[in-house]
Design brief:
mainly alpha, 2 domains, three-stranded antiparallel beta sheet, 77% helix, Spindle pole body component 110-like, coiled coil
Length: 402
């Protein structure tokens, strides 16, 4: 496929007529191949032009040499022509002198010695004439040879002129093609610049997408970490809920026991102390308080659980630290109920207080409730009953004077 046909096919192609857009890699490869083919052909034409210029310079140099030789031959011919004319003049003069001598010989009738001298002179003159005629013939032959050589050289010069005219025409065509190729190369360079601009835009967009991807990846990692933390918090909350459920069930059991005790005491002494029934409604009332404090406490508990887990992992991972001492101070095992009948009878004489104890929060309180360390209805200010401890801020307690 020639370059012109390829260029015409590219020119008719609608892809090259429209504005350049970011094309595929295959299209970019075809475009680059076409540009490389054009550049290679232009380079070949430039090399041919250089070789033709060198040939023309060599021919001009040869023509100059031939012209210089022709000038020399012409000068020599002119010089020989001048010599021939001089010889003709000398021949004429000699002929005139011979005629004069013959006249003088006839008129004067000189002696034999003079005749012999004259004969010698005549012979010499005849010899010179013969020599001159031979030289003239040789000069004429050389002139004819030179004329033939001149004709052959003129023919060669005419052939060279025709060849040079053809080469000049070809050079003009090549120059026109080179100009067209330069124009087309400029167009291709402009299109290539547009393509490079599009490629730069695409690269900038790609970098932006990469940055966005990295940001999203970081966000995903942070979300995963938050998810893990939330899962840990959820596990802690589930454990706390399980503990609360256990505490609640334990408290209900304790309340049933307390009710049974009060019923037994009322049978002996009579209904002197009013006790409210511990039902689920009371618990629901307490649990239906504002949730802000509960949320804060739950977050604090979760933080404590996470800190404990971290400490435990640190102690497990570092065996050099040694055994870990338990920081929880467990209360002493005490008897379940120390109130006797006498103390119960004395309680009716003075003002009594009824404590409504609800399921507390925290692991310490849970252990305390498991061991039966609950508050009991007792006399206000009784020093012998050590089972009642000071109410903590975290415990929600209600009391009623009667």
């Amino acid at each position: 496929m020639s370059l012109n046909s390829k260029w015409e096919s590219n020119r008719t192609n609608p892809r090259y007529q429209t504005i350049w857009k970011p094309a595929r890699q295959e299209d970019q490869g075809d475009f680059c191949e076409a540009v490389e083919d054009l550049r290679n052909e232009v380079d070949e034409l430039v090399i041919k032009n250089k070789t033709l210029d060198q040939k023309l310079q060599d021919r001009d140099f040869e023509l100059e040499k031939l012209n210089s030789k022709l000038k020399r031959y012409l000068e020599q011919l002119n010089f020989k022509d001048i010599q021939i004319q001089d010889l003709y003049d000398c021949q004429k003069k000699l002929k005139e002198e011979i005629a004069c001598f013959q006249r003088t010989n006839q008129e004067a009738g000189d002696s034999n010695s003079s005749k012999n001298e004259k004969d010698d002179l005549i012979c010499k003159l005849k010899n010179t004439i013969v020599n001159l005629e031979l030289q003239v013939q040789e000069m004429e032959e050389t002139i004819s040879c030179w004329e033939e050589e001149n004709e052959l050289r003129n023919q060669d010069l005419e052939a060279n002129k025709h060849y040079l005219e053809k080469t000049f025409a070809r050079m003009d065509d090549v120059c026109c093609k080179i100009k067209q190729y330069k124009i087309e190369l400029k167009k291709l360079e402009t299109e290539n610049a547009e393509l490079r601009a599009c490629m730069n835009d695409m690269q900038s967009q790609q970098t932006q997408m990469k940055t966005c991807y990295t940001e999203l990846k970081e966000k995903c990692e942070t979300m995963e970490k938050e998810k893990e933390n939330l899962e840990i918090e959820n596990l802690a909350l589930q454990r706390n809920l399980d503990q609360l459920h256990i505490q609640y069930n334990h408290c209900r059991k304790c309340m049933t026991r307390m009710k049974e005790k009060f019923e037994c005491r009322d049978q002996y002494t009579g209904p002197s102390v009013t006790t409210e029934s511990y039902t689920d409604s009371t618990v629901t009332k307490v649990n239906s308080q504002p949730e802000k404090r509960n949320d804060e406490k739950a977050s604090e508990r979760n933080k404590r659980v996470v800190q404990k887990k971290q400490k435990s992992t640190q102690w497990k991972s570092n065996p050099k630290l040694g055994k870990r001492k338990s920081s929880i101070k467990r209360p002493l095992n005490r008897s379940r109920s120390r109130c006797t009948k006498k103390t119960n009878e004395k309680l009716h004489e003075r003002k009594t207080v009824v404590f409504k104890i609800y399921p507390p929060s925290g692991s310490d309180n849970l252990k305390r409730y498991r061991r039966g360390n609950l508050g009991v209805v007792c006399k206000k200010g009784a020093s012998h009953n050590r089972k009642l401890s000071k109410p903590k801020k975290s415990m929600k307690m209600l009391y009623q004077k009667r």
